[in-house]
């Protein structure tokens, strides 16, 4: 079991109480791609404080958003009320949640690491035919990285996510070292579609 996955709900709640994910703007990759996608049902996996969930609701999606942290969901619910949007917030462990088959037109994951191929297949099964998956995560790098998990156990190998998503048609796949205000991060970004 990797270090980040060993955190229980109380530890994640403490992280959010200390200001984890203060940002409210959506993922730039998501906001860049969303205009080309049709609205419908969306699932935001490991939604945290809800920045992507709320954005999707503002864009007209019917959004289910899952997270383990009740503290993160309190922040998300408050933000959604302020923006006057409805989101179905689901308080549960993402890895134990049964995703309904062929329900979603869009599924998003931002910086949540899943290794289990069966779990990834459940996510793929949750997409309708023609539905999209937008996934951003951390990857291993051969240089020092400032942002992201402390351990490589929750970083994908280069090309690994591409391999795990073989059942889908990958439209865009980007691996890069990105410079941010906080420093360097090694990331992968994927836009894929269910055949």
Write the layout of secondary structure elements.
Elements: H1 9-17, H2 28-34, E1 41-45, H3 51-58, E2 62-67, H4 70-83, E3 88-91, E4 104-110, H5 117-126, E5 127-138, H6 160-164, E6 169-180, E7 183-193
Parallel strand pairs: 1-2, 1-4, 2-3, 4-5
Antiparallel strand pairs: 5-7, 6-7
What does this structure look like?
By secondary structure, this protein is of the alpha/beta class. The chain has one domain: 3-Layer(aba) Sandwich (Rossmann fold), CATH 3.40.50. 27% of the residues lie in helices and 29% in strands. The protein has 6 helices and 7 strands. It has helices at residues 9-17, 28-34, 51-58, 70-83, 117-126, 160-164, and strands at residues 41-45, 62-67, 88-91, 104-110, 127-138, 169-180, 183-193. It has a 7-stranded mixed β-sheet.
Structural class by helix and strand composition: alpha/beta
Could you estimate the helical fraction of the residues in percent?
Answer: 25-40%
CATH class: Alpha Beta
| CATH architecture designation | 3-Layer(aba) Sandwich
How far from one another are the termini? 33 Å
**Remind me, CATH topology?**
Rossmann fold
CATH superfamily assignment? Vaccinia Virus protein VP39
Summarize the helix and strand pattern as letters.
HHEHEHEEHEHEE
Global morphology: globular
Please give the count of helices.
6
Order of strands, main sheet, comes to: 3-2-1-4-5-7-6
Number of domains: 1
Mean pLDDT: 86
């Amino acid at each position: 079991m990797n270090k980040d996955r060993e955190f229980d709900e109380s530890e994640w709640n403490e992280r959010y109480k200390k200001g984890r994910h203060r940002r409210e703007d959506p993922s730039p990759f998501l906001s860049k791609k969303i205009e080309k996608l049709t609205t419908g049902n969306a699932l935001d996996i490991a939604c945290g404080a809800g920045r992507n969930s709320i954005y999707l609701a503002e864009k007209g999606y019917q959004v289910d958003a899952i997270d383990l942290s009740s503290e993160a969901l309190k922040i998300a619910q408050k933000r959604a009320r302020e923006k006057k949007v409805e989101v179905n917030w689901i308080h549960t462990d993402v890895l134990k949640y049964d995703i309904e088959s062929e329900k979603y037109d869009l599924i998003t994951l931002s910086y949540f690491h899943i290794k289990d191929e069966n779990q990834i297949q459940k996510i793929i099964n949750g997409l309708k035919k023609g539905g999209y998956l937008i996934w951003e995560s951390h990857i291993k790098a051969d240089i020092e990285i400032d942002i992201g998990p402390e351990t490589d156990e929750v970083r994908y190998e280069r090309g690994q996510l591409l391999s795990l998503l073989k059942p889908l048609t990958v439209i865009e796949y980007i691996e890069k070292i990105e410079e941010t205000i906080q420093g360097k991060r090694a990331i992968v970004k994927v836009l894929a579609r269910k055949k």
